[in-house]
Specification:
- The structure holds two protein chains of two kinds.
- By secondary structure, chain A is α+β, with helices and mostly antiparallel strands.
- Chain A has helices at about 1-30, 60-75, 95-100, 110-115, 125-130, 155-160, 200-205, 210-215, 230-235, and strands at about 50-55, 90-95, 115-120, 135-140, 145, 170, 195, 220-225, 240, 255.
- Helices cover about 30% and strands about 15% of the residues of chain A.
- In chain A, the strands form four sheets. Chain A has a four-stranded mixed sheet with strand order 8-1-10-9. In chain A, strands 2-3 form a two-stranded antiparallel ribbon. In chain A, strands 4-5 form a two-stranded antiparallel sheet.
- The N and C termini of chain A lie far apart (about 85 Å).
- By secondary structure, chain B is mainly α.
- In chain B, α2 (about 50-65) runs antiparallel to α7 (about 160-185), α8 (about 195-225) runs antiparallel to α9 and α11 (about 285-300) runs antiparallel to α13 (about 310-335).
- The chains are: A alpha+beta, B mainly alpha.
- The interface between A and B is large, with 57 and 48 residues.
Chain lengths: ~260, ~375
């Protein structure tokens, strides 16, 4: 009796250990999960999404503010009163800060004082995805880098890894700071990281990103691998620059200056 | 042996109660942080890691430094250290536990911490850091406990313990290397993006850990009947002397590469730390204090006359400990974030609640260390009486 109970406990212990390590072992196994979520027929699809921002069509911050507002409103981005707690999906900065490696003393006045839009670059080789210890941030087949707010543990490794400063952290409950809640999109809670999602939720129902819609044609969005797409047309006919190319992250936001 | 922790003098109990009070206050503030969020700290969108991660980094070093008494004993059969290996192992246990607590304190959503196991991601260095730290903790508990128990019973420790001890010697540099890899593999953070980071971390670890051990040995000699031994302390002092010199040498290597190449993204962080950038420079006096302390310590430790004087040696060890603490615990982490990737200078200073939580974790570490050292020293006293 005594013996069988002991051996039962031993067995149970070993089994529990086995079950506990299974997910760890799975990570090293090379089995591929082929489950696919069916897309709506009206959804916009691409091999790799990209954005071209034509900065020639902007003159002052006033032209950009509606774009930022459209994004932040639709995505329930809070407006914190403390600078430390700030959350930005898309924001405005100067040339010398956006293109730190291309700034020089004699840059022409238009570019020098022109406000630039900054957002997540949805990199081809995203450092944030590489460092995330839980796969809470991941890259979709169409290149969009997304966040799973329910899996994020708030370690902020992704924020240290992002060379573009595109990520924000909920240092406190954001809900009291959302002016008008959009019920169509989830609000977040304290302790998780967030950033621009290239409006994945809008693409899924056939709509272009909110910033593109609000830009009066100054921002183009499309498939980088479709030679007939609007972005390819713009890239073919204009010289464009991207941020910190030397890091090899492969940013998907192109700027016409 | 656990019973030894409940038999102690009044002073022992006063220390225990004092530490428990600090722990309790720290825990209370942590509960506040848990309900409010990390907004009670000084961290921001620009400096997204602060005091907690810096303490974690420093303490991984202290934990790894414990190996400096274990290695000579097991690999080189340096018998003198047999007397104090347990002190190194128990220090490592307390330090690793502090590391883990600082990670928990830094998480935005600590209740989800086990997601790291549930969705294991071998591509993330944090996943490996979790593994190396926990294994190192386990190794030190098993080895330390078994060796001490064998000593108490007057029998040689079992052979498999030696195998594990040697394994832990290989493992110790690993924990700090992996911790350095957390930072030095990130693109766009010029301050950390250097291959010397892991070696530098190890050098400062092998200085800070043994320096703390020397101080602990001196305290133990004064307050208990167990004398860790003059030879042991002197040997440790030589280790600290080499390690702190190598640490400063590595730092100067970094300075040469950065300032001779003149690449702004690498220069700006060091400029910020030591001279201030665009009118911001809260850390400037701290960084110079750190360098001065380390340089003075090198002088005191390398010259035999000063090293052999235990009072001077104690001063040198305090200088090494504080110097390396400022270097890693203050400059290393926030220095990497200032200026930020868009070249804005947003400074970071810890808030009062953040400092109290930090003190709470340090008190927890010293609480564990006190209990473990109480056991170790009581066994040593017991054995010498027989």
């Amino acid at each position: 009796m005594e013996n069988s109970r002991r051996s039962f406990l031993k067995l149970a212990g070993i089994s529990a250990l086995g079950l506990g390590t299974k997910p760890v072992l799975n990570a090293f196994a090379s089995e591929e999960h082929k489950a696919e979520i069916q897309k709506k027929p009206e959804a916009l699809k691409a091999k790799r999404w990209a954005m071209v921002i034509d900065t020639r069509k902007f003159e002052s911050e006033e032209d950009l503010k509606p774009i930022v507002e459209a994004c932040h409103k639709i995505h329930n981005v809070p407006e914190h009163t403390t600078k430390r707690h700030e959350i930005d999906w898309i924001w405005i900065d100067e040339f010398k800060h956006v293109f730190t490696n291309q700034e020089h003393e004699f840059v022409d006045d238009r570019v020098k004082y022109l406000p630039f839009l900054v957002l997540c670059n949805h990199c081809e080789n995203p450092a944030c995805v590489r460092v995330c210890p839980t796969k809470a941030t991941f890259q979709r087949d169409d290149g969009i880098v997304l966040m799973d707010f329910h899996r994020c543990i708030g370690c902020r490794f992704c924020m240290a890894a992002c060379p573009y400063g595109s990520r924000s952290f909920n240092f406190r409950d954001p809900r009291p700071f959302i002016k008008e809640e959009n019920k169509e999109f989830p609000t977040r809670m304290r302790g998780v990281v967030e950033k621009c999602n290239f409006c994945a939720e809008r693409l899924a129902v056939g709509k272009k990103p909110a910033c593109v819609e609000a830009s009066n044609g100054a921002i183009a969005f499309g498939d980088l691998y479709d030679s007939d797409s609007e972005v390819r047309e713009l890239l073919k006919n204009n010289y464009t620059i991207r941020r910190k190319l030397e890091l090899g992250a492969g940013p998907a936001i192109y700027y016409i200056v | 042996m656990l019973e030894l922790v409940i038999k102690g003098s009044k002073k022992y109990w006063a220390l225990i109660i004092g530490l428990l009070i600090v722990m309790g206050i720290g825990f209370g503030f942590w509960l506040w942080q848990l309900s409010f969020g990390l907004g009670i700290t000084g961290m921001s969108r620009d400096v997204s890691w602060g005091f907690y991660i810096a303490q974690f980094t420093f303490l991984v070093g202290v934990a790894a430094g414990g190996v400096m008494v274990v290695l000579p004993y097991y690999l080189h059969d340096y018998k003198a250290f047999g007397r104090i290996t347990i002190l190194g192992e128990f220090l490592a246990i307390a330090a690793v536990i502090m590391c883990l607590l600082f990670i928990i304190a830094d998480l935005g959503y600590p209740m989800r911490a086990l997601n790291v196991l549930l969705y294991p991601t071998p591509g993330s260095v944090l996943f490996w850091d979790m593994i190396v730290l926990n294994v190192y903790l386990l190794l030190n508990i098993v080895v330390g406990w078994n060796v001490l128990e064998a000593e108490r019973n007057g029998i040689p420790y079992p052979g498999w313990v030696k195998v594990l001890a040697i394994f832990s010697i290989v493992w110790a540099p690993l924990i700090h290397t992996v911790t350095a890899y957390l930072y030095c593999g990130l693109p766009g953070r010029g301050f950390w993006l250097t291959a010397i980071l892991a070696p530098r971390f190890l050098a400062s670890a092998f200085a800070a850990g043994p320096a703390l051990l020397i101080l602990l040995c001196l305290i133990i000699r004064r307050v208990t009947k167990f004398d860790p031994g003059r030879e042991q302390i002197q040997s440790l002092a030589k280790i600290v002397a080499y390690a702190i010199t190598i640490n400063v040498f590595f730092f100067l290597c970094e300075i040469f590469v950065v300032f001779y190449s003149r690449i702004p993204s690498h220069m700006d962080h060091i400029r910020y730390l030591f001279f201030g950038l665009h009118g911001h420079g809260v850390l400037v006096p701290w960084m110079w204090t750190s360098i001065s302390l380390m340089v003075v310590a090198i002088g005191l430790l390398v010259v035999p006359v000063t090293r052999k004087n235990e009072a001077v040696l104690a001063v040198a060890c305090v200088a090494v400990f504080i110097g390396t603490w400022i270097d890693k615990g203050m400059g290393m982490i926030s220095g990497g974030f200032v200026p930020n990737p868009l070249h804005h200078v947003v400074e970071y200073t810890p808030t009062i609640p953040e400092i109290i939580i930090t003190l709470g974790v340090w008190a927890t570490g010293f609480f564990i260390l006190t209990l473990l050292y109480k056991i170790a020293v009581s066994v040593k006293e017991e054995v010498s009486e027989v």
